[in-house]
Amino acid sequence: MKAIKLKWKGEEVTIKEDRVFEVADAVEDVITFGELVQMRTGGGNIRFTKIARAYAAMLTEAGLPVTPREVHSEIMAAVRNAEKAEKLSMAMEAIDWLLVVLMDGAPEADGEGDTEGNVEAPAS
């Protein structure tokens, strides 16, 4: 598994390999992998409050305590200031980073070695 770097309002935290599972579990308490995939492929059926709750759970479990309302406010401010074509892209980016955490939290299959490097999530 890779370490995942999250940034939120100028603060940064790294989810180390031994914590990814717990962070993924916190995300799945709010939203499932299937729901995220459905939002990702369905595009027009994005539930912003649910994404905000999951993102807040991810950040909080990783060590950056935030409320779902704070995350939702940041997402909505970014969406309001975005060009029309960027709005869907921004929602997809949030969904993609939640999926990264869920997939990195999965056990590795036999024969897979350690992966080097980091994955950086461009949170606000």
Overview of the structural elements:
This protein is α+β, with helices and mostly antiparallel strands and 124 residues long. The chain has one domain (3-104). 56% of the residues lie in helices and 12% in strands. It has 5 helices and 3 strands, in the order E-E-H-H-H-H-H-E. The protein has helices at residues 20-28, 33-42, 48-62, 68-81, 84-104; strands at residues 3-8, 11-15, 118-121. A 3-stranded mixed β-sheet has the order 2-1-3, with no helix packed on it. Helix 1 packs across helix 5 and helix 3 crosses helix 4 (68-81). It is globular, with a radius of gyration of 14 Å. The two termini are 24 Å apart.
Write a short abstract of this structure:
This protein has 124 residues and is α+β, with helices and mostly antiparallel strands. Helix content is 56%, strand content 12%.
Give structural attributes.
124 residues, alpha+beta, 56% helix, 12% strand, 5 helices
Number of helices: 5
Give the strand tally. Answer: 3
| Percent range for β-strand residues | 5-15%
Helix coverage percent:
55-70%
H/E order of the elements?
EEHHHHHE
Mean pLDDT score: 80
Shape descriptor reads globular
Residue ranges: pLDDT <50 for 5 or more in a row? 110-120
Structural class by helix and strand composition: alpha+beta
Strand order of the largest sheet: 2-1-3
Multimeric state of these chains? Answer: single chain
Q: How many domains, as an integer?
A: 1
**Rg of Cα set:** 14 Å
